Amino acid sequence: MKDAMSVSHQISLRDTISKLVNDSRAALAEAPRWQRGFQIFWLLGPFILLIERSPADAWLTILALAFVVRAVIKRDGFFLRAFWVRAAFLFWGVCLLSAAVSAIPAYSLGEAFIWIRFPLFAMASVYWLGQDKRLLYAMFMSTAIGMMVMTGILTAEILIIGPQNGRLSWPYGDLVPGNYLTKVGLPAFAVMIALAVSPYKSVRGWASLASLITIILSVITGERINFILRACGGMLAGLIWRPSLYRYGALILIEILAIATVFTVTPDTGNRFTQQFMNQMPVDAGSPYYRVMYGAVVVYEEAPILGIGTANYRILCDELTQHVPEVDCNTHPHNYYLQMLGETGIIGLIFGSIMIISIIWFCFVTGMRGRANVLAATAFIVPLGLFFPIQTTADFFGQWNNIFMWSAIALALATRNLVASDGTTSQER
């Protein structure tokens, strides 16, 4: 059976969606009854993530724990052979050790212990729930629909109350929607861009329109780094199938003009992306982000080997940096690698970097082997963008950020199941 995205260039969008729906129904019907419920729950993820952080965390944690229970009951440790899995567990061990020897071990150990639920969720997606490629296609489709729902919500906010100080906050009540669009929606957005300049004539128009709308909304949310990641990831995805220079250039030009229009219509947004952004760049000791990030370096010097303990930065930063006037403490230093350095020391940074590089490599190899499939071909863009070292970031051990980020990473990692050498699913093999 040919993959849904590897069929004739002339197939209609309606036929493709119909095939995806029918295939996912068939896959669910064939699955064991006890497993079927978890697979349906997995497919509901993009919509649960629209609600609030507690339901979102519960969704991810339940699936992670179910995977562990299943692995123990079935004595299935096959997933441990994957290098990125072992790297994740090794980094987790370093986090636990760092927490145990820290000044506030109780709090730090708790935060370090529960962090493993994020990689476990990714493992569940790759080695259990996403093994049937038909369901994996369905997960991509549900993610795309989730982006459409978020698009509708943000459009309603723009029409009803408008951006507040150049930013949007619905449906969460805080500044999160940009994270949803960029992190949760990055796999779907990369696919949209690739299809927009692809040989698939029947979907190029729809994909172009969808990518244009989402990139505009990414700007209006006011999340600057998230927008840059989305834009750069999209430009890279657009090169997947070596598109004509005309189509590729036209798409980029249209999106640039759309962004310029947004800046003109909403001056607060434009100012946030230009003047404010340049003033806050961590290029000198006087910039806000420099002062926040420098705190991690000062903290690292206090405990260079194992750091001050996982998630302890928010508690100990003021005390450990009070003699350094160039530091402004925050809940985290706004960079994953600096946070790992400060909280888990040089050992944590090394093992954390190994984990990240192995995930990127895993997705890159998948993309190279499945270049004919748009989902697999764009997979490497997700971890490469989300883990790019030179950027400001959210909390590496935080709740919301990790829920969004690891849901996207899980989907990217699971695309390995689309490129089975014999054309069958892992279950069938």
Describe the structure.
The chain has 429 residues and is mostly helical. It has one domain. Helix content is 69%, strand content 0%. The chain is built from 21 helices and no strands. Helix 5 runs antiparallel to helix 6, helix 10 crosses helix 11 and helix 16 packs across helix 18 (336-369). Mean pLDDT is 88; it is low at 1-9 and 421-429.
Strand and helix map with partners:
Elements: H1 13-30, H2 33-43, H3 45-48, H4 53-74, H5 83-100, H6 105-115, H7 117-129, H8 133-160, H9 177-184, H10 186-196, H11 201-220, H12 224-237, H13 245-265, H14 267-273, H15 275-280, H16 288-302, H17 313-320, H18 336-369, H19 374-377, H20 381-386, H21 399-414
Helix pairs in contact: 1-8, 4-7, 4-21, 5-6, 5-18, 7-21, 8-9, 9-10, 9-12, 9-21, 10-11, 10-12, 11-13, 13-14, 16-18
Descriptive key words:
429 residues; single chain; globular; mainly alpha; 0% strand
Percent strand equals: under 5%
How confident is the prediction overall: mean pLDDT?
88
The termini sit apart by: 14 Å
The string of secondary-structure elements, in order, is HHHHHHHHHHHHHHHHHHHHH
For the largest beta-sheet, the strand count, sense and barrel status come to:
none
Shape: globular
Helix content: 55-70%
Task: Describe the structure concisely.
By secondary structure, this protein is mostly helical. 69% of the residues lie in helices and 0% in strands.
